[in-house]
Specification:
Length: 107
């Protein structure tokens, strides 16, 4: 894994070190200023891995909650065992929306 260090000036005119690498799951370029995140999966790949490891009953419960609304979906993820917390829950929510799970038009 090749990590590139970039020095970027932020809004307060302080230099920030940004670490740049490629996701080992999909190959997309990822940047972070948190050294402990280097080499991890990107948000999309991490969400897919989380979803695939959930029991079918938990997946159904979360999908049903998402059909009632985004907030209900996020609350269902927090109530799941193990809980999926923000900001990772937002990545899972986007993953489910891309899979076609969304709020019912009727309700």
């Amino acid at each position: 894994m090749r990590v590139i260090r970039l020095a970027i000036r932020n809004k307060t005119s302080k230099m920030t070190t940004v670490l740049d690498w490629f996701c080992r799951g999909c190959g997309v370029r990822v940047r972070t200023s948190l050294p402990d995140h280097v080499g991890t999966l990107c948000g999309r790949c991490a969400a897919a891995a989380t979803w695939s490891h959930l029991p079918t009953s938990t997946q159904k419960m979360i999908d049903d909650a998402i059909r009632r609304g985004n907030i209900q979906g996020l609350l269902a993820m927090r109530a799941a065992d193990p809980p999926i917390e923000l900001p990772h829950a937002m990545d899972v929510l986007v993953l489910r929306h891309r899979a076609g799970v969304s709020r019912d038009a009727s309700g």
